[in-house]
Write a structure and sequence with these properties.
Blueprint (H helix, E strand, L loop, with lengths): L1 H31 L9 H11 L18 H12 L4 H21 L5 H12 L15 H22 L7 H24 L8 H9 L1 H9 L4 H26 L5 H4 L6 H19 L6 H23 L9 H19 L2 H5 L8 H15 L6 H22 L8 H4 L9 E5 L1 H10 L4 E5 L8 H8 L4 E5 L10 E4 L2 E12 L2 E8 L3 E6 L4 E5 L6 E5 L8 E5 L5 E5 L4 E5 L5 E6 L9 E6 L2 E5 L5 E5 L5 E6 L8 E5 L3
Parallel strand pairs: 1-2, 1-3
Antiparallel strand pairs: 3-6, 4-5, 5-6, 7-8, 7-10, 7-18, 8-9, 10-11, 12-13, 14-15, 15-18, 16-17
Helix pairs in contact: 1-5, 2-3, 2-19, 3-4, 4-5, 4-6, 5-16, 5-17, 6-7, 7-10, 8-14, 13-16, 13-17, 14-16
Length: 638
Amino acid sequence: MSLPQNKALLKWELIGYFSIITLIIGCSFYYFAPCNYAYFNADHAIHVLMAQDFTWPRDYYYWGQNRLGSLLPMVAHYLHYVIPIHYMYVCSIVQYLFLLTGFLVLSKPIKSYLLKIALCMLLFFPVNEYVALILIGHPYSSQLFAGSLFIYFLYLFRKYSITDTAFGWKKFLVALGLCLCTLLFFYAGVWVSEFNAILILIPLFYLIFDKQVRAFFIKGFRNIRVILLELIIIGCCIGIFSFYKHYKGLFYDAEAYTSFIITKFSDIQKNFLFFVEKLQRALLLKDALVLENWFNWFLIILTGSYIFYRVRKPSTIKVENSKLMNALLVVITASCVLLFLSTWNLRSEFSPRYFTPVYIMYGYVLLLFTGQSFMNKYIKWVATVLILFFGIGIAYNTLISKHLNGPMKDLSEYRNLPKGTIIGHYWDVYRVNAVALDSLKSLPFQEETVRNWDWREIALSAKNFYIVRKDPASEPIQDSINQFGFTFKFSGTTYNCNGTEVLLYHKWSKAYAIKALSNNQFWDVDESTQMVYANQPDSTKAEQFELIDLKNGKISFMRSDGKYLYADQNKNANLFAGSENTWDWESFEIVYTDGAVANIKATGGKFLCAEPGNNGVLIANRTQAGEWEKFRLVKVNQ
C-alpha cells in the first residue's frame, strides 16, 4: 500500500517544485527582463538596437567594446524571424532562455528539489551588484549559457570515455560529437568574454587529478581511434582559434581595453585598500544595504561548514561530484586572483559586479556541498529558505517597492513621434531609440561617446531632429544648435512625451552651388561616368553640395544623394562624385581669398583647377593657384 502513496507524494512534490520554479522565473521576468526593468539604461538599449540591425562581421562585438562577443543580440536578431515582435521583447526572451538553460544544466547534479529551488533563486534573483547577471548590458548571462553547456558536455564526455566498454567506432563517434560540442561552447564563451578561457582549468584538472581520464588518454595511444580523436580535437582547436583570431584582428583595439592586468605595485596596493574598505563595510554592517551584508555572512557560514566537513569528514563518507567541485574551486581561486588584478576592477574601486562569474560558481559549489547525502535535511531547508528570503527581500527593497515603470511604458509616447533622429545625452537617447526603434534613430551629443559610427551617418540624414528638454526652467529653447558640423534650426514645434518636452529641429541647409571663375560655369555631374565638370550655366540646375566638416581642418563635398566627391589619384586626379566614404581622396581644404571666392586643395596639397578649354573638366593637379583655380561658393538656401 505504501508504493501508491509514495507515487502520489512524488507527483505532488514535482507539481510543487515546477510551480515554485515557474513562479520565481516569472516574477524575475516581470521585474528584471529588459522590457520591464525600471533601470533600463543605454548599455542595455544598445543590445536591442544591435538585434534590430545585426550585421556580420560589423557586430562581431558589442558596439564600442571590441572585446565582448555579441551572442545575445545575434540570437535575438535571428529569433525575430520566428517571433516577429518588438526587439525589446525578443531580447528579453533570449536573455531568459540563456538563464534558464544555465539553470537546467547546473541543476542536473543536484538531487534535492529544495536546493534546485535555491539555485533558481540565486540565478534569477541575484543579490547586490550581482544583479548584473540578469541584465543584458553585461555578458554574464551569455557566459552562464556557454559555460554551463561547456561543463555539461565535458561532464558527459568524461563519463562516457571512462566506461569499461571497448572504444569501438560507435563509441568514437559519440565521443567525437561530445568533444565538438564541448569545444563549440568553450569558444563561444571565450568569444562572449575572454575571461571564460579560465574554464580550461577544468579539463586540465581532470587530466592531472582524475586517474580514469588520464588512463583513457595514456592507454589510448595504443588505440588508433583514440589517437584519431585526439588529432581531431587538436585540429578543431587550431581551426576555431584561427577563426576567432582572424575576426578579432578586424577590429581596432581601443586603448581602454588593451591592458587587462594591472602590473604596478602601487595599483595593486590601491586595489587591496579598496577591497579591505568594501569588506569592512560589508561585514561590519556599515553599508545601508543591510540585507546584502547579512547575505555575505550567510555565505561565510556556509563556507565555514563546507571547510569543516571537508577537513573532518570520515574517510568512509563519499562526496558526490567531488571532482567537479574541486575543479570549480580551482577555477574560482584563479578567477579571484585575475579579477583582483584586472584593470576594470581597479577603475571601479573594487566593484563586486566583476565577480559575478565567481558568484555563480561559488554559490553552485556550496549548493552541491549542501546537497550531499550525509548533510542533515534541515540544513537544506534552512539554506533554501534563507536564499529565498534574501533574494525576495533585496529585490523588494531595491526595485519592487518603488513601483517604477519599465521602459516600454515609461517611454511609449516617443513611439508616436514622426520618423527622425533624437539628439541628447548618451544615457537618454539610446534607451528612447530602443523603445521607439521603428521611428527614431539615436545620436548622442558630439562631445559624448557615439557607440556606432555607421549609425551616425544614417542618423544625420534624417528629416526631423528631436532635442529632449528635461528642465524647461533652466534650459531655454535655443533657436539653433550645432552638432557634428551641422546647424539645426528650431521649427517651433514641441511634443510632450511622458511629461518631457521634446523640441523639433530641422537641419539648416549648407548646400552650395560652386562656380568656376575660369569660365563662369557651375559644377555639374555626368551621371553616366560620375565625373565632375564646370559646364552648367544655370545655378538652379547645377549640382548642389553640402560641406561636411571632418574635424581635422578639412571638409568633404557631399551630393544630395549622400555620395562624396573625390580626386581620383589613379585617373589623373580628375574629380568624381560617387564615393561612399570620407577618406583621404575625399578630403579637401578650402582657402578663401576674397569673400566667397576660394581655392580648393585636394590630396597632397594640389589645387583644384577648371580647364575652360576642356569642357570645364575638374582636375586636382596644380601646384600653384591662378585664375583657373578660383571658385565661388554660392549658398543655395539658408
